[in-house]
Amino acid sequence: MFSPFVPLDRWSKSRVLFTSGALILLIAGVDWRVADDIPLGFLYLVPMLMLGRVLTRWQIVPTAAVLTVLTENFDSFFWTFRTGLPRDVLYFAAYLAIGIFVNESARNRQIIERHVSEIERESAARQLAEEQLKVLIETSPAAIFTTDADGCVVMANDAAHRMLALAPGDLCGQLLDRFFPGLSTVPHHNLSRHFFRTVMQSRGVRADGDTFVAEICFSTYATKAGVRLAAMVLDSSEELRTHEQSSLHQMLVGSRIAVSAVSHEVRNVCGAIKVVHQNLVRGLVLKGNSDFDALGNLVVALERIAAVDLGQYPENNTAVDLIAVLDDLKIVIAPTVQEGDIECTWHVDSSLPPVWGDRTKIMQIFLNLITNSVRALRQCDRERRLSVTARSTHGGVAVDVVDNGGGVSRPQELFHPFQPGARATGLGLYLSRAFARSFGGDLRYCGQEGVASFTVNFNAVPLEDSGP
Description:
This protein is an alpha+beta fold and 468 residues long. 47% of the residues lie in helices and 19% in strands. Strands 2-1-5-4-3 form a five-stranded antiparallel beta sheet.
């Protein structure tokens, strides 16, 4: 905004009043003593420009009247009502108008300066907040994304690129649904009518094809450029690994407790047999011998105890998505495979039907098989290879777990508990086969020399029973 005499803005009010008064007196004196035929009233506009900056509107009015009187008294024109009054009105209007103009200009300038100062403060505060937010986003361990209404990534931090195994900046412009298929259920094109604030768990896919479990907190919001989606993602694969490994550990611990109880009873029976046997050795006639009859009863009891099958309990089997189970398995065993320098390959048919079983127990079967394979492979000096293949069969699904860890020396004893040389109780394979058979399937060993190959068979769920 234009403001005359800009340097005067730095003057105090008293200095402006003194300088303006001195100019008025000087102009009046010159007009009275020197200029007889030349009117100098227009020079009063200069002090009026100065006074308009420091006086109020009501102070400008009498000041304009005083300057009008001075101009009329010291000019050379003869005053009459017909000519003098209009001339004085014009004088007064000119002085008043210039004073009001300068006063409004000065007031508007002050308002603009305050507004500009406020904008600068807000801009500085906004810039500081943006810098802090940028630092928070860039240093956050969680992956943070924003997408447009079409699902294309607009912004992603460094953690997001590391999580998805991408170089910095490569994520922008790509569809986020490619990496988090679960977000495809969010209706991007209708976000303007329905805004979301929720948390979901989804399977994430890295750029190199690896999968992981993602906890996604996302919300939608409106901007001038359209609807946006903001998401914060955490990799919860480690929690899944801990949960599944803990489940396997608890299962094995529980089985050891049960088998210990059975073993205790077996030892008691065997001790009694030993005593009876010693008595019979000392005797000469067995017929009608009560010890001999007792031995028969003890043998029958021992057979009953040995006939206990852990897989004969009733099961509540349901339809299980085997592809999802194998995806979780891949996440769980990934660190173990990497630490063992094992080349692991997966071949999973994408059209596998659901199978009958219990998801937790199916996971335990595969964890036990792969744990055994990893243990065997760690003792190999050659290239270590492990493969998992899932394929459809007639009326079911078969999953092959194959490793080149040297195979099994006595395959006929694989699924028997308490094998010589086995770790702990040697119940892992025994329980795994019991679980598989409880689903109506089976676990078989099909290995060759130098190669161990286990096949887990499942029954497929008919389409009409698998649900929508």
